[in-house]
Structures are given as C-alpha cells and as structure tokens.
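re the bet — no i am not wrong, look at it urself. input seq straight from the record:
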Amino acid sequence: MAHVSPFKPGGPLEGQYKLTALATSNPASAKAAAKAHGVPLEKAYNKPEDLANDPDVDLVVVSVKVPMHKQLAMPALHAKKNVFVEWPLGNGLAEAQEMAALAKKQGVKTYVGLQARVQPVMIKVKEIISSGALGRITSTTVLGIDSQLLNLPEKARYVNDPTCGASILSIPVGHSLDVVLHALSSELSSLTATTTTTYPTIRYVSTTGSLSEPEPKNIADNIAISGTLSPSGAALNFHFLVTSPGTPSTFQWIICGEKGSLKLEGASFAVQMMPPKLYQAEAPQAAEGKEKGIYDSREGGAVWKEVELPTSSMPGHFGGVAELYEAIALGKGKAEVSFLAHFLMVLLLLGPILAT
C-alpha cells in the first residue's frame, strides 16, 4: 500500500503518477487488486511480460519478496521500461549485477528503494557535512537495538531462510549502512565483520497474535562491522543487535569531525521508514580572557541542540517511499538511487558477510 497511497486522490503525489496497470501471480488476485485500486480490468495482468509490454506503462515497480525481484524486473528491462525495485535489488550480488548490466545495455532509468537517502533528515545531514561545518570527519558510530525482530510475523517466515536474500543483515542493516556511506560521501577501504546468532530460536506471530512453537533460527541477529572510510580515513563502527522484549528499540548515529559533531537518535533502526531526530553539538562560549574554544569544567561542556528541519512536502506516513517517488518525478538524485549507483558497493560489502 505504501507504493500506491501517495498517488491516490488527495495523496501528495496525485497528478504526478497514475496507476495504469498491475500484475499479480494469478488472474483472480489481479482482478481483485484492479478493482481495489481503480485500474481497468483489461490492465490486470498475471504475467510480468504482459505488464512490461503494455504501451501505457512508463515505470514498472517491483514490490514483492526479494526472491522474485529478478524474475519480475528482467521482462521490464528487456522491454526497455524504466524500473523501480525495492531493496535489496536482487537475491545476492550476482542477480543485482545481472539486472544492472541489462539496465545499462538497454539505456533505461532504474531506481532502487533506498529511500532513507531522500528523507529530509538525511538530506540535512549530508548538507551539513558537505558544507564543511564539521571539518574533516574523524569517526562515525552507529548502534541499533531492536526487540521487534525477536519474533517475526507468520507472513515473514521466509526471512529465516538464509538463501532467500531477505534478512536482518540485508534489509535493515543494508538500508542503514547505505545511508551512512551516502551521507558521508564515503566508501569503505577496509572492513572487518562479525555475525552471530544470539537467540538460537525464533517464533512466528499469527494474525491473531498467537505465537508458534520455537523453531531454529537460521540467520544472524547480531552484526558488528568496523572499518576505515575513504577518502577521509575516518573510523566506522556499526553494531546492530536483536534484544529481549523488555529492551526499548533504539537507533543512534554519531558523526564526529575535527570542528564539530552530529547525533541522530530514534526509536527504530528502520531509519528508511521512521527517520530519527538530528542534533548538532554546540560548544559553550569561552570565558573572558581565554582563547575561543578553551574552557574548563566550571563552564560546562558542549550540549546537543536539535536541528530544525524543513517542513516535509510529504505529509502523512508512507514509509519514506513517497519522498523517493517525488525525487524520481522531479529528476532529483537519479544516480543516487539507480541500479548502477553506490548500492552495488553495499552489496559487495554485505555479500562476504552473508557468506560467513
């Protein structure tokens, strides 16, 4: 629904997009979806090739489980249609590279759902860093604590399959790592990672709220990454862990520079959907007779001051997707969300970790 709601009458992107056709896995569900979203029944398809070959379709959106991304995106690319695929692009690096290569050959516009990049707070972070206000970045530290992923909804059972491409590492960690590197305009020149399964079992939550019997967990739930960023030489420390239900979920990201620092804090590690608040370090005024920036404990230390953000052009909660669609419509940051963009480097990073 997050991909459709912004386009509906009264939505923030009404008039910029029109849902002209859709496809599902069978005729019955396709017709039902068409009726629900006001799409003509003759535009309700159950084959990706039929949707891709529809002359009225300009942009094909692939919004399904990760294992199906390649199967649905490739016909659209062969038909030379512009394509939007949710993150992760494919089930592993090989699939992502295959789709990226075909997109380049076909000369089409492509987009990946790395929507954290276009959140107003993340744009502001990149703006502050790029302005030089923090000076040379010396280190960045990310900590994510999540108790919601201890158990998963029954419909997300596939996430516990390490071969499906959708996991704690590839989705929430991938989104967060991508926006960190993007905001800092950096790449990792060195990388060390440790993954462990802290909770050896997992339970699934039904639609009625009941829990299944514990089953073996097959994916990592504690991921620690450290490395060095280039070109700044800054140190990166990145840690995500699943915790007990009694622990509040938390996201904290601190960026330190030679001249100043930023801090982002929120109640969810899913920053692409629930953006954190932004704070900038503010040093106290130096006492009279002292050099600027030199002060002792009697004068108090620096404090964090919340940074005011511009009013969002996307009122309502659309999981960050509306901002990404707006950026696409306005032609902003095309390369930043394309198949061939910085995200391939993220996959190169996550691929070896997933293999451990």
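see?? The longest helix spans residues 169-183. told u. also The radius of gyration is 22 Å. so pay up
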